[in-house]
Recover the amino acids of this structure.
């Protein structure tokens, strides 16, 4: 048994004999993530003892790190009074995230009803914002001071309300109409003269987002400006809340997972009642794309049928069909990944598009040239026919050059018409490139057929 597991066992023993002081001494020394692991491994009857071992504020810090299933269990078996206090300390955006994950509207309302009125109002306000917007992931727990306040007054305010704020790295300065007027770091505050006014030492060149800004744009701004938190305002520039970097980490993870599913040709749905982890849910998410790709695949099948006469006269052509199709799909998918990344990072301007398109074409051409020479020599070695080698090599060269263009252009077209470019998934691009590759291959073979016989 590892040293960590032995340590865990000691914690379990203190809990079993309800030794509060020993439990707290061991448990609170753990890293927050290790505390989550210990709590997750507890038997349900021992989890209920946590109200005796930890304060509501301490459990709130633990609650924020739990996954949804453990959070939901806690809400079910822990005393309502204790949970009411816990939700007072849990960040508003974390509570809103938890509420949104509850499938049953009645249960979500029941959970909200169990909170204190002031907490419930703050959460309900966040829940009114559109999902995946800045407003839906912001927290309203932040430190604000008047622009007329002195540094000494600001520090006093920070000491009073700092513990309730999700982060104190930034102090936000507001004017008399509660509009965002400036921002400064805690470092700037501590090194300023005590009698200096906030409006004189704060930075008025503020990076902020509207409350309805998409969360992906929020993530991009935090990354580009290297921020720990980003203020959220309404159309009148009133400060509503902030989005912190830890929330953006979750957003990036969610968006990457969603894009990966779409990239793989798996539908992603946020509709109520969806159960993606069940057999039926998994089938429903994948079946639409598979059916679409089957019908698109019939194009390739019909192309082969159209050139049946050519294929029957030169059977050797069939041996290289998989190479043409697979290579086209591979380079197309690579170009697709580059295109989707360019759009995701916000570099979708016309200049970079045409420059990158040219780069992709040149890259595809060079890859095609190297591949065509290699496969051409192999074909000649196997069949001793220079014409067949030329057909295979030339087809591969043209196909790979065009496939990179298709793989790069299709996501851009999707983005232009307002469709998520990740929907232009690998299987979708592969199917298109298969058809193009076969058309080029058999058209060239048919044109040079009299030289092959």
């Amino acid at each position: 048994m590892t040293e960590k597991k032995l340590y865990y066992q000691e914690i379990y023993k203190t809990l079993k004999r309800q030794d509060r002081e020993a439990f707290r001494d061991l448990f609170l020394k753990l890293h927050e993530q290790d505390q989550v692991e210990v709590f997750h491994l507890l038997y349900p009857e021992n989890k209920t003892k946590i109200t005796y071992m930890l304060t509501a504020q301490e459990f709130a810090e633990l609650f924020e790190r739990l996954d949804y299933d453990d959070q939901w269990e806690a809400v079910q078996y822990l005393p309502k009074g204790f949970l009411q206090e816990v939700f007072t300390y849990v960040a508003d955006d974390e509570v809103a995230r938890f509420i949104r994950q509850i499938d049953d509207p009645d249960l979500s309302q029941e959970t909200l009803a169990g909170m204190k009125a002031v907490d419930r109002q703050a959460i309900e306000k966040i829940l009114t914002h559109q999902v995946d917007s800045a407003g839906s992931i912001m927290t309203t727990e932040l430190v604000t001071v008047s622009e007329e306040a002195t540094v000494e007054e600001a520090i006093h305010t920070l000491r009073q309300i700092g513990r309730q704020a999700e982060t104190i790295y930034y102090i936000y300065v507001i004017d008399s109409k509660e509009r965002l007027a400036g921002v400064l770091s805690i470092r700037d505050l501590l090194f300023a003269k005590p009698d200096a006014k906030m409006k004189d030492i704060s930075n008025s060149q503020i990076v902020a987002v509207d409350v309805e800004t998409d969360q992906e744009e929020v993530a991009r701004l935090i990354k580009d400006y290297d921020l720990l938190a980003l203020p959220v305002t309404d159309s009148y520039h009133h400060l509503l809340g902030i989005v912190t970097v830890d929330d953006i980490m979750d957003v990036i993870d969610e968006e990457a997972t969603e894009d990966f599913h779409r990239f793989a040709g798996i539908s992603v749905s946020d509709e109520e009642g969806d159960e993606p982890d069940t057999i039926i849910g998994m089938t429903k998410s994948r079946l639409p794309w598979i059916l679409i790709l089957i019908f698109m695949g019939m194009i390739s099948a019909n192309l082969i049928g159209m050139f049946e006469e050519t294929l029957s006269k030169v059977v050797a052509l069939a041996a290289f069909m998989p190479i043409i199709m697979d290579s086209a799909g591979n380079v197309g998918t690579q170009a697709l990944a580059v295109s989707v990344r360019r759009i995701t990072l916000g570099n979708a301007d016309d200049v970079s598009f045409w420059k990158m398109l040219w780069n992709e074409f040149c890259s595809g051409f060079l890859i095609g040239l190297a591949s065509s020479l290699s496969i051409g020599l192999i074909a000649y070695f196997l069949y001793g026919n220079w014409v067949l080698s030329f057909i295979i090599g030339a087809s591969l060269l043209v196909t790979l050059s065009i496939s990179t263009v298709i793989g790069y252009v299709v996501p851009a077209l999707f983005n232009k018409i307002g469709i998520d470019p990740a929907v232009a998934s690998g299987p979708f691009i592969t199917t298109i490139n298969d058809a193009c590759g076969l058309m080029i291959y058999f058209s060239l073979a048919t044109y040079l057929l009299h030289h092959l016989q």
Q: What stands out?
A: The radius of gyration is 30 Å. Residues 270-274 have pLDDT under 50 and may be disordered. The first strand starts at residue 144 and ends at 146.
